[in-house]
Amino acid sequence: MSETYELSCDCGHVTMTAKGEPKLSLFCHCGSCRQLYNADMLSATGWAHDNVELPDESKLFVHKMDGKDMTRYGCPRCGMTMYGVHKPGIPVIPHALFRKINGGELQDELKPTLHLFYRDRVVDVDDDLEKSQGGEAVGL
Fold first, then answer.
1. How far apart are CA 53 and CA 42, in angstroms?
2. E strand or H helix at 98
3. Fewest beta carbons within 10 Å, which of 3, 9, 87, 126?
4. 104: phi > 0 → left, psi -120 to 50 → alpha, else beta; which?
5. How far apart are CA 57 and CA 22, in angstroms?
6. Could you tell me the fold of the domain covering 4-121?
7. Which of UniProt's keywords are assigned here (predicted)?
């Protein structure tokens, strides 16, 4: 059975849908993701374009990172980040949106499978997931 996730920002102004399984689910520790998402590490899923219905860009704020091919999209009313697009060019949806529709818990099928760019971390993480020192685990 294919799962459908109806996602929205905190105020409900922006909605989007993700269907099926993500291409990847991970924690990213690279400096670019930390800067773009203003977080100690990015916790997110990456989706094939065919598996997401993204919101109309006119409803979003768009933040393009200087000097990088990385963009973050979010709600201009409540400020919530909805997704980003960066290497490898697929929509990257933060896990927070999935937790929001599941009582604060991340669905088992969406749980991260590895850490990317762990060498660049600012926070040590003690878990059993693979700690890829660069992006080689996903072909970056």
1. 22
2. helix 95-100
3. 126
4. left
5. 22
6. 2.170.150
7. Lyase, Metal-binding, Zinc
Q: Which of 108, 56, 110 is nearest to 82 (CA)?
A: 56
What region does 12 belong to: left with phi over 0, alpha with psi -120 to 50, or beta? left
Q: What is the mean pLDDT of each run of 10 residues along the chain (140 residues)?
A: 89 97 96 95 96 95 92 97 90 97 96 96 96 84
H or E segment to which residue 42 belongs: strand 42-46
Q: What is the reported pTM?
A: 0.94
- Write down the pLDDT at residue 56: 92
What pLDDT sits at residue 140?
63
Would you list the domain boundaries of the chain?
4-121
Q: Which residues contact 96 (CB under 8 A, 6 or more apart)?
A: 43, 81
DSSP assignment of 50-62 equals GGEEPPPGGGSEE
Token representation of residue 41: 């590490």
Q: What angle do CA 107, 2, 111 make, to 5 degrees?
A: 25
Q: Which two tokens stand for residue 61?
A: 């704020």
Whole-number pLDDT of residue 89: 87
